[in-house]
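User: Show me an example of a complex going from sequences to structure tokens.

Assistant: Sure. Here are the input components:
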Amino acid sequence: MDVLTEAFQWLNDPLNWTGRQGVLALTRTHLEVSAVAVAIALVVALPVGLWLGHRGRGATVGVVVANTTRALPTLALLTLLAATGWFGNTATALACAVFAVPPILANAVTGIGGVDPDARDAARGLGMSGARVMWSVEVPLAVPLIAAGIRTGAVQVLATVPLAALVGGTSLGTVVVSGFATQRYGKALAGGILVAGLCLLVEGLLAVLERVVTPRGLRSRTRGASSDTRPGPRRGRALPVAVGAPGGSNDPAPSP
Amino acid sequence: MPSGQVVATVANPWFSWDYLERNGSDVLRYTQQHASLTVQAVLIAFVVALPLAALAHARPRLAGPVLAATGVLYTVPSLALFAVLAPVTGIGRTTVLIGLVLYALLVLVRNTLAGLQGVDPAVRDAARGMGYGRLRLLLGVELPQAVPAVVAGLRLATVSTVALVTVGVVVGYGGLGQLMFRGFRSNYHAEVMTATVLCLVLALVADLALALLGRALTPWRRASAAATPPATAPQEAAWTS
């Protein structure tokens, strides 16, 4: 495989790793831009999501926001920003933040909103204020979902940042794009391997982190649920189905 | 100084009917390319995902590995995937198509599997009591019950595929992304905006068509849908990777 050896040659050349456009510098920029984007998304999405979930509304808002942004191509937003004169890494971070907001928001809303009503009721009965119910009952119970949302958002940002190379941003995607542009497919392949490796690595790290921040009592349950990659069979979330069941006998009802 | 002023006064509107009139055939061609790529990718992914999900459902031990494998594929960024595929499959349509299929696969497998697993155990029990075999149970009872989840997965996969096709520009086959990129290169605002809007319209139309299809496929749900608030598919509400 000619291209493969070319790719390994490129990866083996120390000159490609150091310097201003070297792999190391590009990786650093990549991570920096991603971190900024995730931070922006967190600042925007987390408070809104927690509040909407706490107020018990906005479950539909989350879903609608999530689904509309999925339809907007990343490239479109990047080119739109670039065409308006927003070049460079700030614009990239902003555009990527837009795509990190929906998963974080949606998961925060469903996580908090899906907390077992009984637990909330019990907390109220103990005399907790609304804010205290949220911070010491709802948020800890929703941590697995919120963390999953942040992980999804972060990985998505990491996967989106390379696209900015098409409109002049610098990141590991630069290697891929310049490889394609100069028809050196070995270089493109090397860049692709690097980008994929970085994403998988960060995804793995975040998965570990997600497990660490999950309160101990919830761990065994989320572990079982992670096999089907859906949030566990939370009692709170089963409720809508249980309500709907009497109307439609064909709806999957919770097992007796 | 004079040249700067000239550049500033040249009209470069975001929306221009003039552009559409003059480049109608081009826009149409790229839209067709975009639509055909999407349809083909989702169809292939669907045909592959259905047996995979059924297999994972029949052999629960395989569910973990199947989902993990599709999940890893999903994590790899599109740009990287195209770069890895291009040397093998060449520059052009095939590369984009394979990439799109791989991405649609995860959503479809996950949703189909969730739908199959979400079938009411009582219903399954009743079917078994009536003498249904494994295969007949799957085809006659479980799959129809899973239709809403499958359609939800199809809608999700289609919408994200429409958005993803644009990344195909790196291998020169990106449908409307091609227009977007060309517009960006020549600083032609109308071209970028037209392509963006068309992308959104395409996603919306496809989503609507699939929603109607799902409605037509599950007539038994219509009566209950009127009585109860539309229960959004649970797998759509939360966003897990």
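The lines above are the inputs; the final block is the predicted structure for all two components together. Confidence is low (pLDDT under 50) at residues 1-8, 229-238 of chain B.
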